[in-house]
Amino acid sequence: MDHDGDTGDGSEDSNLDRDRYDHAGYLRTNFMRHALNVVIAVIAIGAAVASIPNWGSADFPVTSLIIYVAGMVFIAMPLCLYYESLLKSHRERVAHARQLQGSALHHAAF
Fold first, then answer.
1. Could you tell me if 40 and 73 are in contact, meaning their C-beta atoms sit under 8 angstroms apart?
2. Beta partners for residue 2, in sequence order
3. pLDDT value at residue 64
4. Which of 17, 18, 22, 43 could form a disulfide with 71 if both were Cys (CB 3.0 to 4.6 A apart)?
């Protein structure tokens, strides 16, 4: 994912179009993207902090690994799936709104 969301399908709309045709969906997807980034950062920082006691020894920081894996699997992954569903529904609403506007302009021309 980059700053414009998942660009896998090649049907990327501009930020202006996404904001104009579905403002509420645009705000939700932006908020969710930032929240997901924060959650991943908090999990990584928490795992790093949990490994501090083991930095001076030869022991493997198992607690850190457990925190990281559990956080990513049980917290970040569901948030990521929710973000992807928000992004997909937002794109569908924008495409539908563009189609309606295009057909309205076409009918107005005749």
1. no
2. 5
3. 94
4. 43
